[in-house]
Amino acid sequence: MKNEILEMEAILSEGKMSRRDAMKVFGLGGAGIMMGSGTVTQAVASSSAAKGKIVIVGGGLAGVATAALLMRSIDNADVTIIEPNPKSVSYQPGQTLVGSGVWKAEDLAYNTADFMPDGVKWIHEKAVEFNPEANTLKTDKGQLIKYDYLIVAAGLVLDFGAIKGLEEVGEVYSLDAADAARAKKILGKNGLCSIYFAEGAVDTWTEMQAFVAAAKSGKKVKALFPEPHTPFKCGGAQKKMVNLTNARLVEAGARANAEMAFVTNGKKLFGVKAYADSIAGQMKDRNVSTAFEHKLIAIDTAKKVATFEKHWEEKGAWDPLLEEYAMVEKKEVVEMPYDFCHLIPPQKAPKEIAKSPLGSEKGWVPVNKETMQHAKFPNVFALGDIVAVPLGKTGGSARKQYRVLVENLVATMEKKPLVAKYDGYTVCPLITDIGEVMLAEFKWDPKDDSKAVAAPSFPLDPAKPRWVYWFLKTRLLKPMTMYGMLAGRA
Ligand SMILES: Cc1cc2nc3c(=O)[nH]c(=O)nc-3n(C[C@H](O)[C@H](O)[C@H](O)COP(=O)(O)OP(=O)(O)OC[C@H]3O[C@@H](n4cnc5c(N)ncnc54)[C@H](O)[C@@H]3O)c2cc1C
């Protein structure tokens, strides 16, 4: 089956079958559009005569989709995007597939200019100073920009520099060429790699092939897959990398020579029990060890050793007044050697926003989690990876948030109540093998938003990996994102 899938991938990549025919063959037409469809209380605003200058900081996936829908929702809309990166809409979810040799880097790279909605003004600069009391911001080239309404969609930065040994890499945007050049001096060699930046994904495939070749030659090798201690985009990415590395080892007949370890700072494999149980079964079947409550603190790139702080709580003294035990935090340093380490770095909001009046103690932009309106400034909204809402930082979440945000922003401009509500929907197409995906869709538990519940769009067991979702992931989600969402239509 795997060979047939890879053959089909090659046929589709060479353009021998049209996307429309492929969708018909695989019976997937419309499936992507259906995803998450019943889960958000919203309706896209019909044409509005609302007036006001709208400025969007960040022209990545969330920013451009929002601009496109605003242009369709408001007559003669006055929308400006501030975005310094000419390739800001390149398709980040595909980096997992590039890192495992299924796709090529050129399958993901897109010019922002080709996706900028007609009529939107684009300032090719970075916003660096914010004064929301005066409704102004400043750019890195010194322009002072006034707005009536502000939308913050500036995504997040990869904080490699927070790991001892990687200080030189510093902070990296996933799609920034200059950041990538600096990161590549340390990452993408000696078995240490990360798909979290576009060029890093290419190097990950090179490192993975070297690792598989070493195992095939009879050498006993170790692979390490650590997750960070901060929130991070695409919560399923490390599990995907475990499964894809496993698939490549099996394909080479070299699996028996490799030890694989998934190491997380968290306490569980997934917030939804059915998905967590399914993943635990996959790890067990594939002989992948798991370690919880391990915070990655250092990497010795020369010796190929990752250092973790293992942390846990133990019962301390009995408190007779509270009638409970005091919990005592325990820590221990654990070193893990590796031949191949796929790294997901800690992540945070860009500092110029995190530390501005628009940020929060933790940096993420505080919003009403249902309406996407800023917690302090009613004419400011935010969405995407930068917002402080429970659960997902995914394109799937942004796909729901931008429609809610546009409806509520238009309502604000028209001085009407905000009625559209985001319900926490997010989706993780968790690749379990080459040719198989578990479509983990979930949203906030209505009784407790710190917890998640499954939110399947299809009448099938969502915890079961299926080949049909592989085609959804590899063939439908990219066109749906690039030509549907970025046009404000999906
Ligand atoms: C390896 C990987 C795998 C992923 N897999 C999936 C998946 O399977 N499914 C899924 O749904 N999602 C996935 N994602 C996540 C998805 O790509 C993000 O959630 C999505 O891109 C978020 O959109 P955004 O607009 O918030 O951020 P981005 O798309 O990152 O855009 C933010 C933009 O803001 C700009 N910016 C930053 N600071 C400033 C400033 N001060 N001034 C002006 N502009 C600024 C940046 O240049 C950037 O272009 C994955 C991501 C990665 C890295």
Please, could you describe this protein's structure?
By secondary structure, the chain is of the alpha/beta class. The chain folds into 2 domains: 265 residues, FAD/NAD(P)-binding domain (3-Layer(bba) Sandwich); 184 residues, FAD/NAD(P)-binding domain. It is built from 12 helices and 22 strands. Strand 12, helix 9 and strand 13 form a beta-alpha-beta unit. The longest helix has 19 residues. About 4% of the residues have low confidence. Bound molecules: flavin-adenine dinucleotide (FAD). Flavin-adenine dinucleotide binds next to helix 4, helix 5 and helix 11.
Got a strand count?
A: 22
The overall number of domains is: 2
**Radius of gyration of CA atoms, rounded to a whole number:** 23 Å
The CATH first-level class of the largest domain comes to Alpha Beta
Q: Please state the overall shape, judged from the principal axes of the Cα atoms.
A: globular
CATH-scheme architecture of the largest domain: 3-Layer(bba) Sandwich
